[in-house]
Amino acid sequence: MKTTVQIMDYVEREQSLYIQLTVIDGETEKQAIGEVRFLGDLLYGELIHEKKSPLTEQARMETIVYLKAHFGR
User: What is the pLDDT of residues 29-69, one digit of tens each?
Assistant: First the structure.
């Protein structure tokens, strides 16, 4: 199965972009719901954090690539 990223909502405030999303991990097929934030071009949040993310490494990287491409950052 392929990792699926679904953007539920987002809001832009000055340099910050807050994004609520659901990710279905392609390896485990488990769903993770969370919020990430762009501050300029930097992306933050437990969902994509290297050590805190509930996602597998592959799903975490695919989510980061998807979000950067989708929001052009």
Answer: 999 999 999 999 999 999 999 999 999 999 999 999 999 99
Q: Does residue 52 sit in helix, strand or coil? A: coil
**Whether the Cβ atoms of residue 48 and residue 62 lie closer than 8 Å to each other:** no
Q: Point out which residues pair with 38 in neighbouring strands.
A: 17, 43
Report pTM. Answer: 0.92
| Neighbour count for residue 26 (Cβ, 10 Å) | 15
Contacts of 17 by beta carbon, 8 Å cutoff, 6+ apart: 10, 11, 37, 38, 71, 73
